[in-house]
Each structure stands twice: as C-alpha cells, then as structure tokens.
Amino acid sequence: MQQRPSDAKSAGRLSGLESGSKLPHSKAAVGLTLAVLVLVAHVDGRLVIASDESRTVPKTFVDMTPAELAKAVPELKHLEPAESQNLLPQILKRVGATVAAFFDNFVNTACSEHVTSTVYTPVRVGPLLYNNKYNYLALAQPGAAKGRLQEFRTDTRGKPVQPDAESGVVIVTVGFVAMSVHFHPDYETDSRFRYLGREPMEKQDSYVVAFAQRPAVARQVAHAQVGGRSGIAFWQGVAWIDPVSFRILRLRTDTERPEVNAGLLKETTQVVYSEVRFRQGGKTLWLPREVTVTGQLGRNSFQNQHRYSDYRLFNVEVGQKQDHP
Q: What is the value of pTM for the model shown?
C-alpha cells in the first residue's frame, strides 16, 4: 500500500518484502517519518508469526511506576524523579517550538550512513549478518503535512536502493531524521505526556519526558505490512531534552503493544543527536549521529546499528551535493 502525503495517518509504515522481491522507490521514499520501514527475508520461504496469546494492554511509559520504568528503560538508572508535573506544560511548549522550527526551517540534506544488521532466527544456525554503506537523504516535501520528510538511501551513483532487497537476508530500518515529530505542537494532542525528572545525558543535565500515543486519535502511526499481513503500531517513548536550548539530545521510542497481525511483537529505536553546522547560509540542524534499533518479528529478532557522518546540503533538482558542514 503506497502512502499518500495527504493522509495524516500514513506518516509512518513498516513494509515487508519476500526474498527476491523489490520495493519501488516511491514506496520506499514517501513520508517515512518514523523508524518503521523493514525489509524482511522469509527464512526458508516463511516468516513465523507468533500467536496472539493475550489481548492484555501493557502499561505505557507514562503510566509505569518508577520501579517499572527503571526495568523497562535501563537508561533511566540515574534519573532524579520529578516531584510534580508543574514543569511539564512549559517543557512541552518550549520543546514543541524547537521541533516546529526544525521542520519549518529544514533544508534537504545528505550524509554517509554505515549500516550493520544482525538477525537471529530459529530456523537457521547462526545469525544473518549485514554490513554496508550508503548515501542517506532527507528531503523536505513542499505542501506536505507538517512533520513529513522524505527519507531514503542511494548508492554512490545517486540511484535509490533498498539494502540487499534482492537477497532478502536482512531487516533494515529507516526514517530517523523526523522522529521528533511526536513533540510537534500540531501532534501534541495525539499523545499523553509525563515529566519524569532530570538525568545527566550526553555529558549534561537534561529534562526527561515520556510520551504514549492515544490509539483513538494518533496520526503519526506505523502501518505495518509484512508478508501479506498488515496492522497498525502505536508508539511510546522517552526524550532527554536540553534545559537551555530545549533540543532533544536523545530519543527512545518503543511499540506500545505487540502488533500481532503483522508479527511486529516489539521494536525499540534509540537516537542520539548532534549539532550539524553548514557553511552555506549559516544553517544549523540537530540531526541523528547514531541510531540503534532492536526488535522482534515473529520468532525472528534483530538489532541494527546506523551511524551517520559527513552531512551536507543536497540540491534535489540536480541531485548533487552542495556543501559540507
């Protein structure tokens, strides 16, 4: 199913490919604002989907006790818990303004991406391994809904590619540049928020805020399609926010519950951001530096590492690099 830019509920999607199949560029590139595009190999011609043994809705990060949070999110081990929620409205207002400015002022960028992927499956002895490098592009979409970017990979000649789609041996994720959209003012009502407290992160103090999407109204969701099965995944997460600039230093997102129809039982994405300065026009953007994605598709588990470097401006019309930071 191709995502329509005018359809706000199609902001993110998870797609599956059978071994040897190819995904058209239009499906790979349009509006993927969440880390949810997955290329799935059918091991021995099949993807094992776990049965839906329970419909119990698990607690989200917004609802967990401190002890439950510490277990679910180990990164919070140094958290100083908040005594009240008095600061939450102001934090959301300030970080929302920062996120809105990011999308309003976004310029087309390209960078070098190094991807490593490890997939474990019960029908194979030893893991499936993948290691490659690409150009990674993030493009603004004039006239599209706020928070939409076009993110995709190309080879050294600028041709859009799907990593190893032909051999079908890996699970590859995409869509990290726009993940902060959950804190955009236009989408604030889509989620519930909770101020967790303060914690050192990236060698500095930070505010820590959790969110969980409201399934009845959420628009930036993942439309999952894996091997003919489809479903919708909703997101929860934790953001570490600079208390001065109100930029997001680090962001973690998790599926709220298993998406059993498509077999996406869980997915965790962790993004570390850094400042990128471009000489041309004095542009500065806060962009992903390192991303880790772990998850479970049926009985197949995976872990992906994405590292980004050499950011530069990108001219869409001529398809050539314009400037280096």
A: 0.81
